[in-house]
Amino acid sequence: MDCIFCKIIKGEIPSSKVYEDEEFIVIKDVNPQAPVHLLAIPKEHFASVAELNDERAVVVGKMMKKLAEIGGDNGLDDGFRIITNKGKHGCQSVSHLHLHLLGGRQLDEKMG
Ligand code: 5GP
Ligand code: ZN
């Protein structure tokens, strides 16, 4: 399968890894849109939140928890944003579910 995030997980493409366990990785986004821009990516390939089941939802919950911890560790005391994009209208560009952590500056009030 030609999935860039699966290749990163397998180590076939280099990435700046912040955290890894048996279920997911956290890496720095290659094209950061904020001073802190991280991606949490499950090791199991599935496209988006539309393909969640109960087991996957537990992993995604752990990913959110870890991103919030990392945000605290990176001094994002004034806040941050965690988002996931789905499909064309959501501007999803990589079809392997991932959560974005954005912070380190005042983010836009408008999310759309
Ligand atoms: P999406 O638009 O699908 O929600 O987000 C995909 C994100 O993956 C983008 O923010 C993009 O910069 C990031 N990205 C795409 N290719 C790579 C890559 O090879 N390495 C890393 N670290 N990030 C990538
Ligand atoms: Zn994948």
Word description of this protein:
This protein has 112 residues and is α+β, with helices and mostly antiparallel strands. Helix content is 24%, strand content 22%. The chain has two helices and five strands. The protein has helices at residues 4-10, 54-73; strands at 17-20, 24-28, 36-42, 80-83, 99-103. A five-stranded antiparallel beta sheet has the order 1-2-3-5-4, covered by helices on one side. It is globular. It starts with a helix and ends in a 9-residue tail after the last strand. The structure holds guanosine-5'-monophosphate (5GP) and zinc ion. Zinc ion (ZN) binds next to helix 1.
Break the fold down into its secondary structure elements and pairings.
Layout lengths: L3 H7 L6 E4 L3 E5 L7 E7 L11 H20 L6 E4 L15 E5 L9
Antiparallel strand pairs: 1-2, 2-3, 3-5, 4-5
The protein binds guanosine-5'-monophosphate (5GP) and zinc ion.
Zinc ion (ZN) binds next to helix 1.
Share in helix: 10-25%
Sketch the major β-sheet: 5 strands, antiparallel
Task: Flag low-confidence runs.
Answer: none
Strand content: 15-25%
Strand order of the largest sheet: 1-2-3-5-4
Terminal residue distance: 31 Å
Q: Structural class of the helices, strands and pairings? A: alpha+beta
Order of helices and strands: HEEEHEE
Radius of gyration: 14 Å
Query: Tally the helices: what do you get?
Result: 2
Oligomer: single chain
Total beta strands: 5
- Mean pLDDT score, rounded? 97
Bound molecules: guanosine-5'-monophosphate, zinc ion
Shape: globular
